[in-house]
């Protein structure tokens, strides 16, 4: 068992919490693929999120410092991000990294502030941000955490209670997007994020590292579902690249890319960008 001394979070707890959340996405990737109809009905959201998660799990190790851990997670996610959902998720993690204080442990107010300050990062990364997606769910989760930031001695219960807000926000994605309303599905990327937080909550409740190790060693297939849509798709495939030493703004880069594709996402910093 792993113990956390409230009201702080350290690097090792952050590492295992990410591990637990990531395992939930990996285990449910087929379902996420099945309900993926927006922004492109290409049934790959689960695959893309799972691949992004695996990049982190396979390339980082536990570290006692929270700041070091959140930085390592963000770097690994950015390098291994795949598809729109993966790049957006990586950008959220990048925002957390940039906005986390340089401290080995952080409090609930410090955590909620870093989450809140990460929201502009994900909106700015997307050429045409749309509500009723992962963006909205992360933002509404952040708003809830901010409203509870003074409950500094109740860190555990604040995170646990946040699931109600997430599930409500997720259910509402079906009503906010025409494509989802037609299918009756919730947004796949948003559901992936909710699953991620659910995994973290399970870890907070049980704190059993051995269970995480068992799941991580399972054979996991990162392949697309056989079920494809008959809908005509103008840009069928994702085109991804990592760009280093960027000498133009991300907005300028988005404008250039938007002329040759849709659902453009540019994540990262001025020195290195992941674009999709």
Task: Describe, in plain words, how this protein is organized in 3D.
With 276 residues, the chain is mainly alpha-helical. It has one domain: Alpha Horseshoe (Serine Threonine Protein Phosphatase 5, Tetratricopeptide repeat). The chain is 60% helix and 6% strand. The chain has twelve helices and five strands. It has helices spanning 11-27, 29-34, 45-59, 66-80, 83-99, 108-125, 134-147, 155-176, 178-183, 188-206, 209-216, 250-258; strands at 8-10, 105-107, 241-244, 266-268, 272-275. The strands form two sheets. The protein has a three-stranded antiparallel β-sheet with strand order 3-5-4. A two-stranded antiparallel ribbon has the order 1-2. Strand 4 and strand 5 (272-275) form a beta hairpin. Helix 1 runs parallel beside helix 4 (66-80) and helix 3 crosses helix 4. The model is unreliable at 1-6 (pLDDT under 50).
């Amino acid at each position: 068992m792993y113990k956390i001394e409230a009201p702080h979070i350290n690097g090792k707890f952050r590492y295992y919490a990410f591990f637990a959340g990531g395992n939930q996405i990996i285990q449910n990737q087929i379902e996420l693929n099945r309900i993926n109809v927006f922004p492109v009905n290409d049934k790959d959201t689960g695959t893309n999120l799972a691949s992004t998660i695996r990049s982190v799990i396979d390339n980082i190790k536990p570290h006692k410092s929270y700041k070091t851990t959140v930085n390592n997670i963000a770097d690994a996610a950015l390098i291994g991000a795949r598809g729109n959902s993966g790049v957006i998720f990586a950008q959220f993690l990048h925002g957390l990294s940039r906005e986390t204080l340089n401290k080995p442990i952080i409090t609930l107010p410090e955590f909620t502030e870093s989450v809140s300050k990460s929201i502009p990062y994900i909106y700015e990364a997307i050429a045409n941000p749309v509500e009723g997606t992962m963006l909205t769910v992360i933002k509404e989760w952040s708003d809830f955490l901010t409203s509870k930031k003074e409950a500094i001695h109740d860190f555990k219960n604040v995170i646990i209670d946040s699931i109600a807000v997430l599930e409500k926000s997720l259910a509402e994605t079906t009503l906010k997007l025409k494509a989802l309303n037609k299918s009756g599905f919730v947004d796949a990327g948003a559901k992936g994020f909710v699953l991620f937080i659910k995994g973290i909550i399970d870890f907070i409740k049980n704190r059993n590292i051995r269970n995480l190790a068992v799941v991580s060693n399972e054979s996991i297939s990162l392949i697309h579902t056989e079920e494809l849509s008959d809908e005509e798709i103008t840009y069928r495939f994702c085109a991804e690249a990592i760009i280093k030493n960027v000498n133009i703004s991300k907005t300028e880069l988005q404008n250039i890319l938007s002329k040759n594709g849709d659902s453009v996402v540019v994540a990262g910093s001025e020195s290195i960008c992941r674009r999709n």
